[in-house]
Automatic annotation (TrEMBL), chain A:
Pfam family, one: ER_lumen_recept
Subcellular location(s) of the protein: Endoplasmic reticulum membrane
Main subcellular location of this protein, as a coarse class: endoplasmic reticulum
Membrane topology: Multi-pass membrane protein
Natural source organism: Camelina sativa
Claim: Endoplasmic reticulum is one of the keywords in the record: yes
Lineage: Eukaryota, Viridiplantae, Streptophyta, Embryophyta, Tracheophyta
Name of the protein this chain belongs to: ER lumen protein-retaining receptor
InterPro entries: ER_ret_rcpt (IPR000133)
Amino acid sequence: MNIFRLAGDMTHLASVLVLLLKIHTIKSCAGVSLKTQELYAIVFATRYLDIFTSFYSIYNTLMKLIFLGSSFSIVWYMRYHKTVRRTYDREQDTFRHWFLVLPCLLLALLIHEKFTFLEVLWTFSLYLEAVAILPQLVLLQRTRNIDNLTGQYVFLLGGYRGFYILNWIYRYLTEPHFVHWITWIAGLVQTLLYADFFYYYFQSWKNNKKLQLPA
Amino acid sequence: KTTKEAKDEL
């Protein structure tokens, strides 16, 4: 474990807590894409399949349980909670996210480190996570006024993988043979997808204005 | 070994 990875995990945890805070306290998921939440639930379900077969540390297992539990409970809240589900703007959140799942699965069947069931699904989860934010970014473009919590959620979610990139550089420099191109490229693409969001987020923060993405 | 290593990340 290194400081970059810890910062990444804490940033990721913070993003999840911000979203749960928003949904649980003000019982609203306005501006949040259910499609992105469903994709993230699939990402964690396919990435943490080894949670019962391989143990690294209490921390590792605990964080996996937190991410699995939070992503599925957010999907449950947005789909079935009587108050929250009413605040979900269904007609704006129209990204065909299933069109992201299949290409990622096909790509994982083609490009992976080992052709085993767990490895292919793990690779699939990396590819899917890289594009999972797209429905949310599209929804943000359509939602005129983005509330602070939603903006912070997306900002933190985008930042965590950026810290992971620093972690990969650090591990590449300090651990011999630590080379994982698939993880690195997927992580880089994922972070780059946030580039314009980060730009407008900083602009709004600098000018102390409401966050608005250009249509 | 190295591939196993990658799995220690979240």
